[in-house]
Specification:
four-stranded parallel sheet; 12 strands; Rossmann fold; alpha/beta; 18 helices; about 15% strand; six-stranded parallel sheet; about 425 residues
């Protein structure tokens, strides 16, 4: 099949959806499909090679924004639009946190969801035009449901099946101000009727979005996310002293503050002697103040020298970081659709402690590589972490059990095979 994957980039930091989509396209190509990944809005920041770096950036973020703000930019010639799509200019814009604040994006989100009927109709036609040139795709994959405004014109112009991954969009949509929040959900429900299939990364999230978007259940195909397993292996020996780790975006909704409080509780009760704390993952400019406050709290409790923050690691650094841990916890405060960090930790033989909500019970049940605790409760989290760390042999065995399941069930190839099955179903339904 000829498959085009449309994926929004971040411009300046690693994003789980970008990494997942890039891994998927690489695996699809290894299976023999003609697959290409095309960045939208901003350049992608990846931790693995892009298999199709020659693909153009479409739906450029600056053009989208300016066309929303001014009628003038909806009529600019192509050479002006190309200048505004300059990678350097887009990366500079990406560093401006206010441009990506959910509270400011209600009207812009609604307009893009309206596709050819919205203020960015010119950008929609550029995407359609590029996909209509040469050999047309058999399937166009949208990285998330916020892109469904493209579906109608893509189907009309190319005849391709349109498939959409579901990757945690509800938390963003629910953060929008009213009345745009309700209008966006209503528009999504309407526009999703023009999508041939949906691929959520977990049963949990499939059920959530099937209900909220009123999707036909037969059009929803769960495919767990997978990772490139090259380079992942357990450390030869467990760390001594033990290390509690966090690997995700360093922000409130990923639960970093909850884990900091759990670490303080662990150090106060003294149940795990010499416990260290290591934090890694994306840190954007808007995260810096939040992280500084957490670091100050740790230092005020005399623990500054026992804690390490490592933002924005590359792939090799990420794997080395995970191998340095005794246990990983990312106690996300919202309905996480998957949690790629769980699979990554287990691939390195590191057990996890996660809150008993969202997709985490599903992942822990499948892998056997962790334990669950009450959500948003630092004391309960500390007890669960301590239970693992006080029995290092069992913790290591748990991590190894989880690792073996990840090797079988959560590889990039396994993900790609599942996606191909869903794409075949989508094409058959046309």
């Amino acid at each position: 099949m000829r498959i085009v994957q449309l994926t929004p980039g971040t411009g300046s930091f690693h994003c789980g959806a970008c990494i997942r989509d890039n891994t998927l396209v690489t695996a699809l190509r290894e299976l023999g499909h003609d697959a290409v990944i095309v960045p939208l809005y901003l350049p992608m920041t990846l931790d693995e090679p892009n298999p199709t770096p020659e693909a153009p950036l479409l739906f450029g973020g600056i053009n989208v924004y300016l066309q929303h703000k001014s009628r003038l930019f909806r009529k600019t010639p192509a050479w002006v639009d190309r200048l505004l799509n300059s990678p350097a200019l887009l990366k500079s814009a990406a560093k401006r946190a206010g441009m990506t604040s959910a509270a400011d994006l209600g009207a812009l989100t609604l307009s893009t969801l309206r596709g050819e009927e919205g203020l960015q109709a010119k950008e929609v036609e550029k995407v359609v035009g590029w996909l209509s040139e040469g050999e047309k795709p058999d399937v166009v994959c949208l990285s998330n449901v916020l892109l469904v405004g493209l579906a109608r014109r893509l189907r009309q112009a190319t005849g391709a099946a349109v498939v959409c991954t579901l990757q945690g969009e509800d938390s963003f949509l629910d953060s929008l101000p009213e009345p745009e929040r309700t209008q966006c959900w209503e528009t999504l429900i309407d526009r999703c009727r023009e999508v041939d299939a949906f691929i959520p990364p977990s049963r949990y999230y499939g059920e959530v979005m099937t209900g909220r978007l009123r999707l036909p259940p037969e059009n929803v195909h769960v495919v767990h996310n997978g990772i490139n397993l090259d380079g992942y292996a357990p450390a030869a020996e467990p760390p001594d002293p033990p290390v509690l780790g966090f690997f995700a975006r360093q922000c409130h909704n990923k639960g970093l503050g909850t884990l900091v409080e759990a670490y303080l509780e662990l150090r106060r009760n003294g149940g795990v002697a010499g416990l260290k704390f290591r934090v890694a993952g994306t840190q954007t400019a808007e995260d810096a103040t939040y992280v500084a406050g957490l670091r100050a709290r740790l230092s005020a409790n005399g623990l500054g020298s026992d804690v390490e923050f490592l933002p924005n690691l590359d792939r090799d650094q990420k794997i080395a970081f995970l191998r340095s841990l005794s246990v990983l916890s990312v106690p996300a405060t919202y309905g996480e659709s998957f949690g790629l960090y769980v699979v990554e930790a287990l691939a390195a033989g590191v057990p996890v402690v996660q809150p008993h909500h969202a997709a985490f019970p599903e992942l822990v049940e499948i892998t056997g590589g962790g334990v669950l605790c009450e959500p948003d409760d630092p004391v309960a989290l500390a007890r669960a972490v301590e239970g693992l760390l006080r029995d290092p042999a069992e913790a290591r065995a748990m991590g190894e059990r989880g690792r073996q399941v990840v090797l079988r069930e959560f590889s990039a190839r396994r993900m790609a095979e599942g996606v191909v099955t869903a794409l075949v179903c989508a094409r058959g339904g046309r």
